[in-house]
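Quick start: what a row looks like.
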Amino acid sequence: MRETLALLFDSAHPSASVETIRRRDLRDDDVALDVWFCGVCASDLHAIEHAHSHDTPLVPGHEMTGRVSAVGPGVSDLRPGDLVAVGNIVDSCGECEECRAGLENYCRHFPTPTYGGTDRRDGTVTCGGWSGEMVARSRFVHRLPAGLDAAAAAPLMCAGVTVWEPLRNYAVGRGSRVGVVGLGGLGHLAIRFAVALGAHVTVFTTSPTKVDAASALGAHDVVVSSDTASMQARGRTLDLVVDTGSGSHDPSPYLDTLRIGATMCVLGIAERIDVSSFSLRWGRHQLTGSGTGSVRSTREMLAFAADHAITAEVELLPASAHEEAQRRLRASDVRWRFVLDLRTLGRDRSS
């Protein structure tokens, strides 16, 4: 077994401790990578909040970049020294209708998450990227295109591909009119991708202080959603709304901005959504959701990001500052994504 340091959360520790964990020996189709950078996502916070109620230790982190250190004998497309990226899926059954169609993210038998999941072959619990090394099936390890900064590209593997999926699924392109609800880790990348695809982008935010920031990211129109008159003025103007809001909220005002038959896609983590049936019926609107991306979609996203120089705006912190990142993310004090430098892990054992 391979050993590496990791930020470990469990019932025995009030906060994370730097511990040695074991990674599996390489299988025929495995890749080992030295993790350089890993993002801090809202879903990490959710998992950490529940870590102390479970017996199984937790190593968070599911949007990472790093350098290949070793490959299994059956791997031919990657080799030591390559820069790569790993997202929030590290395996799927490969046999169901969805997997055969290249939709591993919707695997009928559930894709294996990067952390907190169960390895399909040996039953061990998967551990994420807040660690010094990662081992994963080569199919779910993606080459990082030249020109993308490794730290700023890490959030593309979760936030980036999450917003990319609906933009491509609903054929956003030149002339499309897209609304983005929320300006954070997902929202700022939704703006950049939609603008690069040729869309006219309207951002809806609850915070007047974010108006200038949205414009600076490329948004053509910014609306403070509490302004009823401004919301009504955008009625039936948009082809797609991507909702990146993380809290429970009423989607009805945003549904009303859609053209007849258009779609609103929910991406953020919200325990509950209450919607007026009238907002759905009034314009034959569709309310749907989307998760992470497939292998094919992830690689398409990375190539597009490289071609258009798109990365996340990040604040890079040493691994020892993970508690600061968690605290500030809970307070929405981030612009627009925290990334931990895992190369610093273990330099201070009290990380």
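That is the whole record. The CA atoms of residues 117 and 126 lie 5 Å apart. The radius of gyration is 20 Å.
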